[in-house]
Amino acid sequence: MTDSVLIEGLAVETVIGVYDWEREILQQLRVDLEMAWDNRPAAASDDVRQALDYAAVSEYVQAFFERCQPALLETAAEKLAADLMVTFAIPALRLTLWKPGAVPAARQVGVRIQRGDWS
Ligand SMILES: Nc1nc2c(c(=O)[nH]1)N=C([C@H](O)[C@@H](O)CO)CN2
């Protein structure tokens, strides 16, 4: 699959972190997504129902972080990737979760995973 639908820098607020003090506060994450999708049917029909609707996916990601509040970025990434692939029938995706401010000397830190079949 050579086509994709992209979401970059989606801001979400959630409870996340391994330390006790982190369980008491909201922190911002930034989400980048590259989702494999054949864009030709949407282009041919000019119909959003044939597209992978990035607005709908963005809303889903926001709702996910309201109900899923894990300690590790790794856990959040794995669960979110699995949920998105099932809910939207996405064959493959690359997901990056950034946690700006977690390491003050770094611009941001995060994790990136790739799941599914990109062929
Ligand atoms: N690989 C990871 N390392 C760390 C994580 C994480 O989620 N994945 N989390 C923390 C703390 O929660 C940290 O962000 C607090 O500043 C430390 N390392």
TrEMBL record:
Coiled-coil intervals: none
Main enzyme class: lyase
E.C. number: 4.1.2.25
In this protein, which residues make up the domain named Dihydroneopterin aldolase/epimerase? 5-115
Q: Which reaction does it catalyse?
A: 7,8-dihydroneopterin = 6-hydroxymethyl-7,8-dihydropterin + glycolaldehyde
Q: Which SMART domains match?
A: FolB
Gene3D superfamilies for the chain:
3.30.1130.10
Q: Which Pfam families match?
A: FolB (PF02152)
List UniProt keywords, sorted A-Z. Folate biosynthesis, Lyase
Q: Give the pathway.
A: Cofactor biosynthesis; tetrahydrofolate biosynthesis; 2-amino-4-hydroxy-6-hydroxymethyl-7,8-dihydropteridine diphosphate from 7,8-dihydroneopterin triphosphate: step 3/4
Q: Name one GO molecular function term.
A: dihydroneopterin aldolase activity
**Family listed:** Belongs to the DHNA family.
Q: What does this protein do?
A: Catalyzes the conversion of 7,8-dihydroneopterin to 6-hydroxymethyl-7,8-dihydropterin.
> What is the protein name given in its UniProt record?
7,8-dihydroneopterin aldolase
Which species? Marinobacter lacisalsi
Record lineage: Bacteria, Pseudomonadati, Pseudomonadota, Gammaproteobacteria, Pseudomonadales
The protein's gene is named folB
